């Protein structure tokens, strides 16, 4: 009888992070048998290696994007300011919060293209936007509406989406394979996720949009 090999018995050296991503927290994940990059609100990560990206989402949204031919891909974790208001993001082209959301998406896409991805080959998976912030019940819906309109306007190919609901999510995404695992957290042992997102929301409301980014 073959003896099962436990993931923690074979641990390869940590792959080198792409330029600009060395500050992202990475660790060995025994459950998945590979290194994982852990994202906090406002961060994104791109890799060309066989590693996974993990984050926990409440009202925030993550776009998981890759080029399946090269395996280069990544994930972001972002939220729009609640001052977004009504209407589509295209119609409000000069709106600061619209530019913020576009900035989050375009930084991720441009880094994938920079490291060998092709624009026409990109595939997208979307998740998040739960109604978990009681004092701001529509912020998750705003994030969902924005990201759906964005991928439609940019003609990006969406393979799957798990959006909305009332639960936070723990998300794993492995660009090398395109696998996205989503676990809905039916209960939270503490308020870490809610406190983190509330703090993040206040930060983006008070700081200006950082420059302009255009897609390659």
Structural account:
- The protein contains 3 helices and 10 strands.
- It has 216 residues and is of the alpha+beta class.
- It has a single domain (25-206), classed as 60s Ribosomal Protein L30, Chain: A, CATH 3.30.1330.
- A 5-stranded mixed sheet has the order 1-2-4-9-10, with no helix packed on it.
- The longest helix has 19 residues, at 96-114.
- The model is unreliable at 1-5, 84-95 and 211-216 (pLDDT under 50).
Q: What layout of secondary structure does this protein have?
A:
Elements: E1 25-29, E2 34-38, E3 44-47, E4 52-57, E5 61-66, E6 73-76, H1 96-114, E7 123-128, H2 139-153, E8 157-163, E9 169-174, E10 179-184, H3 192-206
Parallel strand pairs: 2-4, 7-8
Antiparallel strand pairs: 1-2, 3-6, 4-9, 5-6, 5-7, 9-10
Helix pairs in contact: 1-2
Question: Which band does the percent of strand residues land in?
Answer: 25-35%
Arithmetic mean pLDDT: 83
CATH architecture: 2-Layer Sandwich
**Main sheet properties:** 5 strands, mixed
Helix/strand/pairing category: alpha+beta
Strand and helix order: EEEEEEHEHEEEH
* CATH class call: Alpha Beta
Helix content: 10-25%
User: Cα-atom Rg, whole angstroms?
Assistant: 17 Å
- The unreliable regions are 1-5, 84-95, 211-216
Strand order in the largest sheet = 1-2-4-9-10
Coarse shape: globular
CATH level-3 fold name: 60s Ribosomal Protein L30, Chain: A
Count of separate structural domains: 1
Total of helices: 3
Function: Probably deamidates glutamine residues to glutamate on methyl-accepting chemotaxis receptors (MCPs), playing an important role in chemotaxis.
Keywords: Chemotaxis, Hydrolase
Pfam families: CheD
InterPro entries: CheD-like_sf, Chemorcpt_Glu_NH3ase_CheD, Cytotoxic_necrot_fac-like_cat
